[in-house]
From TrEMBL:
Domain of life: Bacteria
Keywords annotated in UniProt: Lyase
Protein name (Swiss-Prot/TrEMBL): Methylglyoxal synthase
Catalytic residues (positions): 61
EC number(s) stated in the UniProt entry for this protein: 4.2.3.3
Length: 139
């Protein structure tokens, strides 16, 4: 079971809902996280259970970023709207930077999201399960 975050800017929310609906059978075996409205919309249109964080501008991107920093997130689908200025742009850039630092795959468009989900369906993310299995902890 992998931890997957789903984030979508306002003009990309319909696209995210359609995408997750199409691949509901792939997502149903994993722990899903999303920012506020995105998570609500996905749950309203699927049978998936999603842990919702705050909306992005209110800190949801940073909450997901905290999981990335702790190597607790396995991949992210973040459908960004590159043509609309975002008031929380520094938070977005920080999240993307954390993904790069930690080596966490992050799709920022539907084409890359498709590749990640198809890889997930094939079992290509088994290496992330080893990361969780051997993660150092307090004993």
């Amino acid at each position: 079971m992998l931890n997957i975050a789903l984030i979508a800017h306002d003009r990309k929310k319909d696209e995210m809902v359609n995408f997750v609906t199409a691949y509901e059978h792939v997502f149903e075996g994993h722990k899903l996280y999303a920012t506020g409205t995105t998570g609500t919309r996905i749950m309203a249109n699927t049978k998936l259970s999603i842990h919702r964080f705050m909306s992005g501008p209110l800190g949801g991107d940073q909450q997901i970023g905290a999981m990335v920093a702790e190597n607790e997130m396995d991949f992210i689908i973040f459908l960004r709207d590159p043509l609309m200025a975002q008031p929380h742009e520094p938070d977005i850039i920080a999240l993307l930077r954390l993904c790069d630092v930690q080596g966490i795959p992050c799709a920022t468009n539907i084409a890359t999201a498709e590749l990640l989900v198809r890889a997930l369906d094939r079992g290509d993310f088994a290496w992330r399960e080893l990361v969780h299995k051997y993660k150092p902890g307090i004993e």
